[in-house]
Amino acid sequence: MGFKVAIAGATGNVGREMLDILAERRFPVSEVVPLASSRSLGTEVSFGDKTLKCKVLENYDFSDTDICLMSAGGEVSKQFSPKIGAQGCVVIDNSSAWRYDADVPLIVPEVNADAVAGFTKKNIIANPNCSTAQLVVALKPLHDVAKIKRVVVSTYQSVSGAGKEGMDELFAQTRAVFVSDTVETKKFTKRIAFNVIPHIDVFMEDGYTKEEWKMMAETKKILDPKIKLTATCVRVPVFIGHSEAVNVEFENPITADEARDILREAPGCLVIDKRENGGYITPHESAGEDATYISRIREDATVENGLSFWCVSDNLRKGAALNAVQIAEVLLNRRLIAPKQKAA
């Protein structure tokens, strides 16, 4: 018997990706229900070879729904996720609304799948920030062997991380530059076309941005609270795919060759690391792929037991939609939920 799955925010970038991934991975569904706001009522979305029409989230009855993949933003999730969970439907939320709640597990299946069992407290499971997800997939196998003390990461994050509006703005600005039109800035704080912006989310009192703080807090919650992490998060003129330059200091010795061998065997990781022209992965090549790609692995002589590497992943997939579906698969595989029996 299949599971009834709802997608909240089905018309957005991540919502549509969730629908695609459910179909690609042949998730055992009895029914898929796309949900959106009232203004999107009747909007058509694709699920495999089917076309589905969106229903309205606000008045939807979740009592016979097993799983809700929530990608409708933090405020919507704060309002609706507890209500959905109270109806016996497990919410897997892609926003930042529940990530730091002690009663809500924050899950990357390759890293801390065992923690998913804590979902029963609120019937909510949180998806991490897109930049955190790919980072901890790469860090986890190394941490298990050599124990990480400190991480310094600089991110190069695509505009799709800011939603459809971000992608539209990069396209419009790029076109404007080529035809000598006025470059209009709406979504981002500065021009993004042919530029980079060292500012994602709001600034905090200590000078870090909220995006940078998320990476610090989430890595501690998912991987190890003892790890020290500092991040600089930068928006770059790339449509899909986040990249990260990562420097790691370990407690125990580890060579670049050892790290390469460890990561080659690690779940979710794909090492492409040839020391030649093109022997690495760029965000363009990661688009549409599930793996977290790791390149440029090398020893850092400036610190004891230090390594540096380059990490790339499709932020709409592993950074959001794929990770959410993988969490749902963990629930099924561990028999933590069963399909609701419909009344005769």
Structural summary, described in words:
The protein is 30% helix and 24% strand. The chain is built from nine helices and 14 strands. It has helices at residues 13-24, 74-86, 109-112, 130-146, 164-178, 210-222, 256-264, 283-286, 317-333; strands at residues 3-8, 29-36, 44-47, 50-53, 55-56, 67-70, 90-93, 124-126, 148-157, 228-235, 242-250, 269-271, 292-300, 306-313. The strands form three sheets. The chain has a six-stranded parallel beta sheet with strand order 5-2-1-6-7-8, sandwiched between helices. It has a six-stranded mixed beta sheet with strand order 10-9-11-14-13-12. Strand 12, helix 8 (283-286) and strand 13 form a beta-alpha-beta unit.
Which secondary structure elements does this structure contain, and how are they paired or packed?
Layout: E1 3-8, H1 13-24, E2 29-36, E3 44-47, E4 50-53, E5 55-56, E6 67-70, H2 74-86, E7 90-93, H3 109-112, E8 124-126, H4 130-146, E9 148-157, H5 164-178, H6 210-222, E10 228-235, E11 242-250, H7 256-264, E12 269-271, H8 283-286, E13 292-300, E14 306-313, H9 317-333
Parallel strand pairs: 1-2, 1-6, 2-5, 6-7, 7-8, 9-10, 12-13
Antiparallel strand pairs: 3-4, 9-11, 11-14, 13-14
How would you describe this structure in keywords?
6-stranded parallel β-sheet, Rossmann fold, single chain, 9 helices, Dihydrodipicolinate Reductase, domain 2, 344 residues, alpha/beta, 6-stranded mixed β-sheet, 2 domains
